[in-house]
Structures are given as structure tokens and as C-alpha cells.
Backbone:
């Protein structure tokens, strides 16, 4: 399934969004969920986990809760934040983090009601989340877990999020090399996820958005199968965002498709030339070459 | 008797018992639980026993005190409740509670999780894992190093390189931007064939637009590649070789 939407954001950048999700070649159901909410430039992806399709419930709850809270905040900007205010970041960033904390609680409560792991208090249902919102020339990227956000700018393809996985932590601590990490048996072990505890720490990052930037939100089903170089090549070469997303999913399936695969591709195109076209062109000229 | 467990993210920092004396919480060093963080007020809140019940009172702090996500002024606490102050969490436990044991593998250490499931490590398991890794070395969790490196040697045809190391799970042969083996020439197809790697380091070739031949035999679905096999597709001839 692939969709496309093109719409302007506040600062003259149009975002062309394309998304595609697939169960993959091994799993029986798709426990990834996503949402493309172009009217508020909000894009959300969640990868659910837990037995008996509770992963699907967890990821759907995550996406729906975040979407509802952010939409409500658009109507009512003084809507109370859930949890504490993060200093030094924009209101939009705080709003997104707040939405994710609410999603965490929602999944946690649902898990308590329906699922209980045989040992201790740990709930048997959880989800990752990665979300991006574009406001006034800035992108806020917030995440919990090992679903990722990347940005392609020119020839540079950069991972914007740090995986909250045991392996990634070991690499950060210098206990494991990147190469060893890729070969490890413990790829799927997370140290942070939604729905597991009542409180969760949300990572938030802000990026300035330039014309021709391409952002990618994806679940680990994509990055386990394709290398960063291969993903970047698809993003550069594809004609449109939806073609890019569909191509990424197809290639990940060809490579093995061991997990559910979801990709949201966001292309930041210069605003269509109109009343402000002249000013935009002048601005580009003075900015010089990148 | 109740215990307060101070945590930051999933790390346990301190455990404090609440007895006859109250436990005050805040940034100031004369608190029972000191949280040195600008989001925490000097005297932020306190936990005390009141006629057999465990109570939490917020001292009118700037950023508030939360219990299970809800901002509170004065509430009763029960075991399992999670108190949020700044970025820290204080979990209320009953010290008489016996912690259920996690599944173990006979050594007394928690069994490593199944590869295909995604699981969450909580604090205790994570500490044990880290200790185990430090003691035994990372080799216990890493698959045996691939001693054989798969390569393609170009015998005939126009390609961007003479030899390719197959480093990825998927290798595309074709003209497209995402091909590893880039075919040159006006009539070269965008994708001609694909080679996939399985978990056991075996490689299989399949069609991806054209039908490749392996040692003169057309590939039907997927053909497993052995060292020395010769692949022909889209005008190119490539030898598959495992190198040490």
C-alpha cells in the first residue's frame, strides 16, 4: 500500500510524503502502524511487539494517541502537556514528546488490562515510535526504541536517531564494534519502549529543513535487510516519494523480508513559484552553493 | 515496610525505606532523596506514613510531582506506583514482595532472548547481561566470524568494477542506481539479476528482470551458488568465488 500527499508548511517548504508498509516474507501479520497527517505536517511510525497480535494493538494505539493529542493541541494550543516541559526546545517539540508520553501510558494501561507476561510485573505488550513534525522551517524528530529517522542531504545520508537497543548501547559504550553489532544474536533486544513502564524518556531532536532534504522514517524491518548505501541510492534515484517508499519495501522483501517493513519518505521541495517565487529564488542565490 | 526506588531511565540509583520518619525529596542536600537536577525544586515533595497508609505530598513545586502520569498534590501510594519528579522516577515497592524469577538457562543467568522476537530488558536483566558480557567477552553473543568472503569476479562484460565483494544481504546486478554490480551500456536493463545472502552465509541467485544462467543452466527460481560457479546475465559473465 502506498500513498502520496503534497502540501505546504509554514515556511515555504512543500513536503511530498510517500509511505509504504508490508508484512514482509516471514511474519504472519503486520504489527507496524503509521500515519501521514499532512494538514499538521506530522508523520508517525510505530513497530509493535508482544504475542498474539498484541503488537498490532500497541502500534495502532501509539499512532492514534499521538495523532489525537497533536490534533487537539492544534485546536487548543494551551492544552496541558503530559509530563514535564523540556527546556530549550520549541513548543512543537514539547507537544510531540508529550503526545508520545501519553501514548506510552495508553499502551501501558491497555497491556495491564489484556496481556501479562508470565514473569514479574513486566507487561507483554509494547511498541517503538518515531515521529517527525515540520513547523516553520524546522523538523522535530522524536523517538523511543529502534525505529529510525534518517536525512538525505545532497550525498550525505545520516541517521538522526540513536537506537534504544542493547546492542547500540554496547557500541556507544565501546564494548562492541559496529561490525560485531551487525552480527550479534541480540539485535532485537530493546532497552527503551512504549508501554513497558509508566514513565518513558523520549528523545527529541530538532533539525533545520533545507530545500531538497529528504527525510526517511522506517521500522527496523527495512534497515535489517538493506544497507544505508542502498537506501540512500533509492532515495536519490526515485522519481517521487511514494515510488521511493514502495521501492524500499520491495527491495527489503527481495533481500529477505524477515520482519514487517514500513517506510515513510518525506521530500522537502522548494515552494511552487508564485507570489513569493521571486523572493525565494533571490534567497537561494545569496545562500550560495551547499 | 515500603521502599522507594529512585531510578533514572532504567538505572536504579538509590533505594530508601520509609519508616517512622518521612522521606523528603528535592534538590537540596538535606533531603532523604536528593535529585540534583534543575527541573527539581529544592524541597520538592515528601513521602510519609499516615496511620498505616503511605502518602505523597507535593510541596507546591514548580514542575509538579506525578504519580503514574497524573500530576498530584497529595495522594496515597501503593506498591507499583511510579512517582515522577523531573526526569527521575521513584518506584514504590513493598520490601516483603518476592520478585518472580525470570526464565533462566540452568546457569542461573537469564536465558538469552529468542532471536526473532523483540523484547525489553528491564534494569536487573540489563545489569546481569552487561556483567556477563564483561566477564565472558563479546564473542558469546556474536555469530562466528564469516571466514569466507563472497566475491564476484567479472570475466566478460562492461561493468563499473572488475571485482565485487558481496557485503550486503541483497546484491542487484543491473544499471539502476541501487545496483552493486553496475552494468554499462545503452541496452543494459535496470535490474537483471539479484543475489541474496541467507543467515548461514550461503548465497542464492534469482531473476530480477532477466533470467541468469549458472554454469550454462537457466535459473528457475533461486539457485544456490558454489565457489567457482559462472553466472551469465545481460551480456556479462561473472565468477562467484568464496575467498578467505
Residues:
Amino acid at each position: 500500500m502506498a500513498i502520496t500527499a503534497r502540501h505546504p508548511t509554514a515556511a515555504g517548504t512543500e513536503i511530498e510524503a510517500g509511505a509504504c508498509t508490508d508484512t514482509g516474507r516471514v511474519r504472519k501479520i503486520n504489527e507496524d502502524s503509521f500515519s501521514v497527517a499532512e494538514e499538521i505536517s506530522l508523520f508517525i511510525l510505530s513497530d509493535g511487539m508482544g504475542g498474539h497480535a498484541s503488537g498490532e494493538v500497541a502500534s495502532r494505539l501509539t499512532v492514534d494517541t499521538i495523532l489525537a493529542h497533536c490534533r487537539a493541541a492544534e485546536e487548543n494550543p494551551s492544552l496541558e502537556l503530559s509530563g514535564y516541559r523540556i527546556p530549550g526546545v520549541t513548543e512543537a517539540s514539547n507537544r510531540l514528546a508529550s503526545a508520545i508520553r501519553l501514548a506510552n501510558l495508553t499502551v501501558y494501561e491497555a497491556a495491564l488490562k489484556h496481556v501479562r507476561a508470565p514473569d514479574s510485573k513486566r507487561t507483554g505488550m509494547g511498541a517503538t515510535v518515531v515521529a517527525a513534525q515540520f513547523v516553520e522551517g524546522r523538523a522535530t524528530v522524536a523517538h523511543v526504541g529502534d525505529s529510525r529517522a534518517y536525512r538525505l542531504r545532497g550525498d550525505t545520508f545520516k541517521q538522526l536517531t540513536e537506537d534504544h537497543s542493547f546492542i547500540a548501547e554496547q557500541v556507544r559504550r565501546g564494548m562492541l564494534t559496529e561490525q560485531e553489532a551487525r552480527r550479534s544474536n541480540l539485535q532485537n533486544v530493546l532497552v527503551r519502549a512504549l508501554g513497558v513502564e509508566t514513565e518513558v524518556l523520549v528523545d527529541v531532536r530538532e533539525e533545520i529543513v533545507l530545500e531538497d532534504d529528504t527525510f526517511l522514517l522506517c521500522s527496523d524491518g527495512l534497515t535489517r535487510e538493506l544497507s544505508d548505501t542502498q537506501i540512500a541510492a533509492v532515495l536519490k534515484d526515485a522519481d517521487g516519494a511514494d515510488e521511493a517508499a514502495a521501492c524500499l519495501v520491495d527491495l527489503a522483501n527481495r533481500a529477505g523480508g524477515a520482519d514487517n517493513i514500513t517506510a515513510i519518505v518525506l521530500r522537502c521541495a522548494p515552494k511552487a513559484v508564485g507570489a513569493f517565487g521571486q523572493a525565494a529564488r533571490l534567497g537561494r542565490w545569496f545562500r550560495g552553493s551547499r | 515496610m515500603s521502599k522507594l526506588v529512585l531510578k533514572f531511565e532504567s538505572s536504579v540509583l538509590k533505594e530508601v525505606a520509609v519508616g517512622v520518619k518521612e522521606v523528603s525529596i528535592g534538590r537540596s542536600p538535606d533531603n532523604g532523596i536528593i535529585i540534583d537536577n534543575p527541573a527539581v525544586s529544592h524541597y520538592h515533595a515528601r513521602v510519609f506514613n499516615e496511620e498505616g497508609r503511605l502518602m505523597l505530598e507535593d510541596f507546591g513545586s514548580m514542575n509538579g510531582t506525578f504519580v503514574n502520569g497524573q500530576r498530584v498534590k497529595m495522594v496515597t501510594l501503593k506498591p507499583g506506583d511510579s512517582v515522577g519528579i523531573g526526569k527521575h522516577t521513584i518506584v514504590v515497592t513493598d520490601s516483603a514482595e518476592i520478585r518472580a524469577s525470570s526464565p533462566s538457562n540452568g546457569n542461573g543467568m537469564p536465558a538469552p532472548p529468542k532471536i526473532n522476537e523483540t523484547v525489553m530488558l528491564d534494569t536487573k536483566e540489563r545489569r546481569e547481561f552487561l556483567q556477563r558480557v564483561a566477564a565472558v567477552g563479546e564473542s558469546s553473543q556474536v555469530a562466528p566470524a564469516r571466514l569466507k568472503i563472497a566475491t564476484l569476479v567479472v570475466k566478460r562484460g562492461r561493468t563499473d568494477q572488475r571485482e565485487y565483494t558481496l557485503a550486503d544481504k541483497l546484491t542487484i546486478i543491473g544499471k539502476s542506481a541501487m545496483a552493486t554490480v553496475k552494468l554499462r551500456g545503452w541496452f543494459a536493463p535496470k535490474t537483471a539479476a539479484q543475489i541474496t545472502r541467507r543467515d548461514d552465509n550461503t548465497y542464492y541467485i534469482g531473476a530480477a528482470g532477466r533470467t541468469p544462467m549458472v554454469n550454462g543452466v537457466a535459473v528457475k527460481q533461486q539457485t544456490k551458488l558454489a565457489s567457482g560457479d559462472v553466472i551469465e546475465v545481460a551480456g556479462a559473465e561473472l565468477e562467484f568465488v568464496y575467498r578467505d
Remarks:
- Chain B touches chain A through 52 residues (CB under 8 Å).
